[in-house]
Amino acid sequence: MPAELSAVVLQEGRLLAWAHHSNGLIAVTKNSLIDISDQVSTVTPWTDSVQAKWEPPHLNVVFQGQMEPKPTSRSWILDEASQLPRAVRDRVTSTVVVDRVFELPNAGKVRFVARKDEKSVLWTAIADDQAASQTEIGQLEIAKAVVELRSSFGI
Length: 155
Fold this sequence. Notes:
- With 155 residues, this protein is α+β, with helices and mostly antiparallel strands.
- It has four helices and ten strands.
- The strands form three sheets. The protein has a four-stranded antiparallel sheet with strand order 1-2-3-4, sandwiched between helices. Strands 5-6-7 form a three-stranded antiparallel sheet, covered by helices on one side. Strands 8-9-10 form a three-stranded antiparallel sheet.
């Protein structure tokens, strides 16, 4: 493992896989995804992950932190097809326990994602139409949908 990666990995839990990408290095640890691009390190916890997609040689991961209003998508072109895409899929799958999309009459299309950490499950509602989802009726529909999903999944 390259030295610039090992210094960051030590703080983030056990290393599962790493690879070169078009601008640097990427690593998967038990707790986080580490990206070193142009000598800048970005560490994103798996509890912020929403989904991942691997279409060789492109790896795309969508994240949304608890305080972020919208998800962000990050992608990398991997130099080699290592075990990294599989490790990313395994970490996202172990974090995201529910991922459903519903069309709500007054809030529009909304993706509901339940992500777990060691202590709890965090529900996130990602609306395509931010304006509609912020109205009082939109908020009520989203809240009702979360209650129904929690009940149906026992979460």
